[in-house]
């Protein structure tokens, strides 16, 4: 594993036109919604800032500096490793612009402000699994989550041999990752997103994935070969890794988990 450290990017923006969860809690910014006593951004920021291997922390949001006006996040402004960057409506474009502006800062670990349960064990496991990859994504297998939290509802990606949910952790290990961001940006701009994905990755590969003819590892390896990059999927054993805060029920669950951790 690369022991030189990494740059962390926290995606703290929200959807154009307002975020439903922020509106539910009467908060102008989703990243500042209080969870178990402090804003979501403060939870993620403190986890990353406490690590010695985090060289820099970049907070990306539409009004990034305003997020640090909150009494519980103001300390981030005084943290020498933290910078803020404004983004527009395209988060993909903002990520690409950020890593282009910081060519000496690879590798990058990408996460989100609503990834409140992020902890050192998740990051350490992900770093080991992502080692050597141009791009890597963290996932949790369905049976892992359901064993720990029966009945919890997530969006599942079906492959041969298992179903998986994203863990809001991405690894951008080299400038080659920009190839994937360019495709992601192209899909983001298309109204017919399913058709855009077919065009980006090839109809044959997309149909094989849809028909569950490929395992997760096989699919990731084929995508990597098609793009000429080293791509990895990293499975995390922590069920909490795929529980972010997107709706009120998530908020209640995460608060209960955090209280249990404190006890």
Automatic annotation (TrEMBL):
**Which Pfam family is one of those matched by this entry?**
NTP_transf_3
Q: Which species is listed as the source?
A: Rhizorhabdus dicambivorans
Keywords attached to this entry: Magnesium, Membrane, Transmembrane, Transmembrane helix
UniProt keyword Magnesium present: yes
Spans through the membrane: 196-216
Give the matching SUPFAM superfamilies: Nucleotide-diphospho-sugar transferases
Q: What is this protein called?
A: MobA-like NTP transferase domain-containing protein
MF terms in GO? nucleotidyltransferase activity
Q: Does the keyword Magnesium apply?
A: yes
Q: Which residues form the MobA-like NTP transferase domain?
A: 8-144
